[in-house]
Write a structure and sequence with these properties.
5 helices, eleven-stranded antiparallel β-sheet, single chain, Pnp Oxidase, Chain A
Length: 210
Amino acid sequence: MDALKIGDPAGAVPEDFTRAEDPFALFAAWMREAEAAEPEDPNAMALATADADGLPDVRIVLLKGWDAQGFVFYTNRDSAKGTELAQNPQAALVLHWKSLRRQVRVRGPVSPVTAAEADAYFASRHPQSRLGAHASRQSRPLADRATLVAEVADLAARYENEPIPRPEYWTGFRIAPLAIEFWQNGDYRLHDRVRFTRAGAGWERARLYP
């Protein structure tokens, strides 16, 4: 195994990705290729959480930001995943790019983003999406669609000439990776896998059997 520091060395990713030294540089390169190749939502990811009893739950969300500190998504804090993260602040994610025959897996502890980060992202959303965040009591029972549509209409009238504020319960979460694994499909199931595992301020890299 190789002990590595985050971002050292920075720069190009080798053609053989299993020899990459910086997992974030490799992720950036793969994400750029996914953005060029995937027809819809290259940032779609399966997010797995678990409740206080350890019962797992998984759903598709969108990756909305990432850097050396971690991978960020946004949600209603009172939703099922928000409640689960309050009880058990750990998560795992996987991005699967079928057209590229690749996937990336991440797991680690989760913490809320700052209020400033959440405000900035919320302000960048389409106004209808901001209204939807106010109207939706996410994960709770809804009598019918008409009820939700009416609530959105009422909010649109209320905020017609005013900024739409971020609801206090709507925020972001950051997964700080303890491990990042890159997988690329190979013929006859001879896939290529490399896993970076957090080791102090750096990473240890290991190639894995498929």
